[in-house]
Amino acid sequence: MRFATPPPVRRLPLAGEEAVTVAAPAEAPSFVGAPRRRVGPAPLAVDRMHVEQLSVAYGRKLAVDAVSMPIRQGEVLALIGPSGCGKTTLLRSLNRLTELTKTASMKGRIALDGTDIATLEPTALRRRVTMVFQQPNPFPMSVFDNVAYVLREQASRRPRKRELRSAVQSALERAGLWEEVAGDLSHPALRLSGGQQQRLCIARALAADPEVLLLDEPCSALDPQSTQVIEELIVTLREQVAVVIVTHNLQQAYRIADYVAFMYLGELVEYGPADQVFGAPRQVRTQEYVSGGFG
Ligand SMILES: Nc1ncnc2c1ncn2[C@@H]1O[C@H](COP(=O)(O)OP(=O)(O)OP(=O)(O)O)[C@@H](O)[C@H]1O
Q1: What region holds the ABC transporter domain (predicted)?
Q2: Superfamily of chain region 29-46+72-103+119-279
Q3: Is 6 a residue whose pLDDT tops 60?
């Protein structure tokens, strides 16, 4: 596939380099047109969060520069861009993890269902906007207790094990892990495979019944087969929660994202439907990045 009008571009300068004019890559990425995980149309999207003019700095270093975008349930939003462009900082700002870094400061506003997240109690916010990290990090306890932990934390009185059973089962089912672990929920979580551990972490995140699920490179430590299982799961989950994923893997973003946000040097360069960002990007910088010109 060819991009509509490939203009000549000034190549983005690398550190300490002058910009140079080069011919624009004329071809769309080879994976455009390849099969996707998405089956059928996306469910009706509902706005969950609004990022408004968000800037985040570490000391004097600006990491995110006046970014605005909606985050919707019913869609997978992929944050893409070269290393250091601010993807993780943006992701971590959505549940106020950024503020745990002492040097970090923030301007702008992020709303969750209309409420400024700055006014919410951080732990409660992090249950509603929950994060799964790059490395699976189950607690050193049984499969059951990993999921039950969150439910126990939320309960006003300590619930009995049998009272938690159906909620634990439901979270494991939503994470596509139930069938594999139902036979022995007392199995130590750390003895599961890497892919199973990551699905357990997703189950643990879902147990709190969040509105937004943040995924920071969730497949980068996994083999291709586990990656496939998790990608299929992510696509299913977008019906129940808003999903935001940071990924370096453009093919993965193409396979699973409904919307894509391309960031460069802290700026949001382009935000749009995945078909547009990969197949007909509006910005030269996006065109160059998605076709492998840099990064
Ligand atoms: N804790 C921190 N203290 C100081 N600077 C930081 C900190 N975390 C990130 N940065 C800087 O902020 C900028 C954005 O980093 P961030 O990790 O958000 O980018 P990224 O796009 O997620 O990168 P990567 O893809 O490599 O994970 C980078 O210049 C980075 O060096």
Answers
A1: 49-290
A2: P-loop containing nucleotide triphosphate hydrolases (3.40.50.300)
A3: no
| Alpha-carbon gap, residue 133 to 239, rounded angstroms | 21
**pLDDT (average), residues 73-84:** 96
Tokens representing residue 133 in the block: 């990290």
Q: What is the band of 207 on the pLDDT scale with cuts at 50, 70, 90?
A: very high
**Which residue ranges have their beta carbon within 6 Å of ligand 1?**
58, 61, 63, 81, 83-89, 101, 103
| Range of weakest confidence among 94-98, 150-154, 157-161 | 157-161
Cα–ligand 1 centroid distance for 138 (angstroms): 25
Q: How far, in Å, from the CA of 174 to the mean position of ligand 1? A: 32
Per-residue pLDDT of 167-205, as tens digits, reads 999 999 999 999 999 999 999 999 999 999 999 999 999
Q: Whose CA is nearest to atom 29 of ligand 1?
A: 84
Which atom number of ligand 1 is nearest to the Cα of residue 79?
A: 21
Q: Which atom of ligand 1 is nearest to the CA of 59?
A: 4
Please give the number of the atom of ligand 1 that sits closest to the Cα of 64.
Answer: 14
CB 293 within 8 A of CB 286: no
For the residues of 212-274, what is the DSSP string, one character each?
A: EEEEESTTTTS-HHHHHHHHHHHHHHTTTSEEEEE-S-HHHHHHH-SEEEEEETTEEEEEEEH
Residue nearest to atom 23 of ligand 1 (CA): 84
**Residue where the block lists tokens 């207790």:** 145
Domain ranges of the chain: 29-46+72-103+119-279
pTM, entire model: 0.89
pLDDT band at 29 (very low <50, low <70, confident <90, very high): confident
> Measuring CA to CA, how many Å separate 84 from each of 75, 80, 115, 126, 225?
25, 11, 29, 24, 28
